[in-house]
Amino acid sequence: MAVRGQKTKLDWVTEIARLLEGRCSQSGKVIVECDNLNTHTRGAFYEAFELDRARQLIHRIELCDTPKHGSWLNIAGNELSSLTRQ
Questions:
Q1: Predicted pLDDT at 45
Q2: Is the pTM of this model over 0.90?
Q3: pLDDT tens digits, 66-85
Q4: Where in the chain are the domains?
Q5: Half-sphere exposure of residue 65, counting CA atoms within 13 Å on the CB side?
Q6: pLDDT of residue 61
Q7: CB-based contacts of 4: which residues, under 8 Å, 6+ apart?
Q8: Of the candidates 23, 12, 18, 4, which has an alpha carbon nearest to the alpha carbon of residue 45?
Q9: Distance set, CA 83 to CA 31, 77, 79, 80 (Å)
Q10: How many CB atoms lie within 10 A of CB 70?
Q11: Checking CA distances to 8, which of 2, 23, 37, 85 falls within 20 to 30 Å?
C-alpha cells in the first residue's frame, strides 16, 4: 500500500486493484475490512475502471465494514489514550 496525501475513491480502488493483481493474485476471494468512509464502495470500481476490469475485481473481494460504534479500533484508541495520560 502507498501513502497518499488524500483519501479519494480513485486512491482506494487503485490500491485495492494493485493488491488483488499483485500480492493476492493467487487468492480466490479476499476479505477487505473497511472503516466507514464513503469512498469504500463497490461503485468506486466502476467509476475508476472499465466495466470488465471493475467486475473482475469486485467479484474477488468481500467488503466487511467495521461497526459504527464500539469497533476494536475505537477501543484500542481509548486504551492507548488512557495509558498515555497515566
A1: 93
A2: no
A3: 766 656 666 777 777 778 77
A4: 9-85
A5: 10
A6: 92
A7: 11
A8: 12
A9: 32, 10, 6, 5
A10: 9
A11: 23
